[in-house]
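Suppose a colleague, Dr. K., hands you the sequence of a protein chain of 211 amino acids and asks what its three-dimensional shape might be. Before reaching for any lab equipment, you can write down a predicted structure in token form. Begin with the sequence itself:
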Amino acid sequence: MIRLMIVDDHELLRLGLRQIFSDYHDIEVVAEAGDGETAIRLCREVHPDVIVLDVSLPGLSGFELTRRLKIGKPVIVLALSVHDTSPYPERMMEAGASGYLSKGCSVSELVQAVRTVASGGRHIGSAIAQKLVLNNMDGANGTPFDNLSSREMEVLVLLAEGHRLAEIADAMHLSPKTVATYKYRIFEKLEMRNDVEVTRLAMRYGIGTPA
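The predicted structure, expressed as tokens, is then:
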């Protein structure tokens, strides 16, 4: 039996996922959470085998939540997100996720992905994998964010959502000085001069918008 936890800030989506998995005798939903801090607490209490989580969450992002969940007793993370283009999948995998699916995937692919990662494998959604391959081909266009580290990507997401440095530092459990350093590196890599320019660029690629 695969013990599963669902982490998504949309109650209707959690309800839908719970209903989907109830049809499969080898998967049991043991907990659900609407934010990262609740997910961490429940993970310690119920010890799920696999956590299906959204990338865009209130407070802790999916990137940071994944990193924290991987500390101590290992837990398997399968990302399920509306963000199906680079650099989201790459950054989540770097943070420790074992798989990444688009919320537009089929039920059969979602269930198979849960089974695959639970058995120690890795799974990238078929549509996402195709996009990643095309982006890596000669002449294919990536995104301006491909050179950002996973930490820089997380800071970018929070900046695009309108959070201040102090709020970002608190969410990521870092010092404001460290966050300011990440912010400077983001500006430098993207060749941007201020928050407004960075936010506009991020929004153009759907970064920082609600999932």
